[in-house]
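Private note to self, pasted from the team thread so I don't lose it. Backbone tokens:
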């Protein structure tokens, strides 16, 4: 039992599961020669020059076949890491919304300075509308942070949750990895290598994405969502209508 926000995250995160498995199947098929035409040409079985112009122009050899398969796998894995982060961000936004009754005005005023336009307040039409404006403003500020630990600390301060640092820390490298994939094409920065020495990344080199990488990311981020969800429910911040 958890929140509807949690269930949405799990469903979103599962969208790529079949893609991850299928791209691994394709890679295995290429390595085993199952997609190599009997005559060795074209590059792959079923490649047609008019439909697959770029593939048909490549030299039909094993190196090119493996290069194409590896690039596809890297692209799918990278998309998975990016999407997982977006799904996690969407979860955080929803859990803030459903937990808004847990906002303590004194705590909010102390921990988060929020500035709202007077016209926006008047146009909100109700106290619920004002809370919606405050929620969005708070989330915008949280969204501006790049460090998961800081985001979760701010969320914990806002809602009065006591989160386990080890669960947050386990997810942090995959959140930072997403930033590297988006902003530096997956090249490991000195900061990343120093912060996560056991990740196996090398400074100024592309971070190698494997099946284990995406599986570990899924496990760590899902565990973080489950942890936040459980804490919010245990604190009595979630109404029955927001449970699933």
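Design output:
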């Amino acid at each position: 039992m958890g929140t509807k926000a949690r269930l949405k995250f799990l469903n979103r995160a599962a969208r790529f599961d079949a893609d991850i498995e299928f791209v691994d199947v394709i890679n295995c098929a290429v390595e085993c020669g199952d997609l190599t035409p009997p005559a060795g040409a074209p590059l792959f079985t079923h490649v047609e020059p008019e439909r697959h112009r770029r593939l048909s122009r490549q030299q039909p050899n094993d190196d090119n076949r493996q290069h194409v398969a590896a690039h596809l796998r890297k692209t799918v894995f990278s998309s998975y890491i990016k999407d997982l982060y977006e799904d996690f961000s969407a979860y955080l936004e929803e859990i803030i919304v459903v937990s808004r009754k847990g906002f303590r005005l004194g705590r909010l005023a102390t921990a988060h300075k929020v500035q709202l336009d007077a016209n926006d307040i008047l146009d909100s039409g109700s106290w619920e509308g004002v809370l919606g404006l405050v929620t969005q403003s708070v989330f915008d500020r949280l969204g501006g942070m790049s460090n998961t630990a800081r985001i979760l600390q701010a969320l914990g301060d806002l809602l009065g949750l006591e989160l386990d640092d080890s669960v947050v820390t386990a997810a942090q490298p995959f959140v930072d990895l997403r930033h590297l994939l988006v902003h530096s094409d997956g090249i490991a920065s000195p900061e990343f290598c120093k912060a996560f020495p056991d990740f196996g990344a090398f400074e100024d080199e592309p971070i190698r994405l494997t099946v284990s990488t995406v599986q570990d990311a899924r496990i760590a981020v899902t565990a973080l969502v489950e942890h936040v969800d459980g804490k919010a429910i245990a604190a009595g911040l979630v109404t029955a209508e927001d449970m699933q």
